[in-house]
Specification:
single chain, alpha/beta, Rossmann fold, seven-stranded parallel beta sheet, 10 helices, 44% helix, 14% strand
């Protein structure tokens, strides 16, 4: 299929996992893809030329603006943005204390609690939101400026999370992803007159490098949360993104597709 022939796409956090699968799928659909990640080398290894890898720290405005300037120079513009970059945890966010309390309670200590909030320091909270939420805004802003100057519309797809609906995850991460979904709806309303569609995809637990080191019993428990009793494959998330990026979704904006195997219905 060549639904994206002639389109120029940017995928953030595209060097591995879901991001890499999205980049490959958009390229397979005919798009010219710029993969943004912290390492130019890793980003550039995902796809061969003429696709490009660009170093970008989405938590830094100057880095984002420089990366999009490079995209404009090398690709000539942008038609599709996929905001995939994000982190689930950061030092000082209280997750170490959460896991310790969880283990103690599972061991029979009823005085122990799996707390994160009361241990979460400002720097841990801010780091997760700066990358996962603020990074999506910074990249969207840069993309919209380019799309507006081109005057030809475009498509923005934000990668959310089932955790934003169910609340099962680290508090800063769940908060950031829930805010990403709100940002999706607000931007969809604002940007419709410019012909820019803004949608989101909510993956459930997915077979990525993050899950690889987990014990098999933990993976099994996570998989059991879905009615399909397995983890998603990155390619399955990428398929939903490709649909939203294409003209097949020309009347979809402010929408969210859940790709979670039935772990959460909405």
């Amino acid at each position: 299929m060549n639904r994206l022939q002639g389109k120029r796409a940017v995928v953030t956090g595209g060097a591995q996992g879901i991001g890499a699968a999205i980049a490959r799928r958009l390229a397979d659909e005919g798009a010219l893809v710029a993969i943004l990640d912290l390492s130019t080398q890793k980003a550039g290894a995902v796809l061969p030329a003429p696709h490009i890898g660009v170093a970008c720290d989405v938590s830094d405005t100057a880095s984002v603006d420089a990366a999009f300037a490079q995209v404009a120079d090398q690709l000539g513009g942008i038609d599709i943005l996929v905001n995939n970059a994000g982190i689930g945890s950061a030092p000082g966010d209280g997750m170490a204390e959460f896991y310790a309390g969880q283990a103690a309670r599972a061991g029979g200590d009823e005085t122990a609690f799996a707390d994160q909030t009361l241990h979460c320091a400002d720097e841990g909270w801010s780091k997760v939101l700066s990358i996962t939420l603020d990074g999506a805004f910074r990249c969207s802003r840069a993309a919209v400026r380019m799309m507006a100057s081109q005057g030809a519309g475009g498509s923005i797809i934000n990668i959310g999370s089932t955790a934003a609906l169910a609340g099962n995850g680290p508090v800063p991460y769940v908060t950031a992803k829930a805010a990403v979904l709100g940002m999706t709806r607000a931007m969809a309303r604002e940007l419709a007159p410019r012909g820019v569609r803004v949608n989101a995809v909510n993956p459930g637990a997915t077979e990525t490098p993050i899950y690889a080191p987990l014990p098999e019993e933990v993976k099994a428990a996570v998989a059991a949360d879905s009615v399909m009793k397995r983890l998603a494959r990155p390619e399955e998330v990428a398929g939903a993104v490709a649909y939203l990026a294409s003209e097949d979704a020309s009347f979809a904006t402010g929408s969210t597709i859940n790709v979670n195997g039935g772990a959460w219905f909405s």
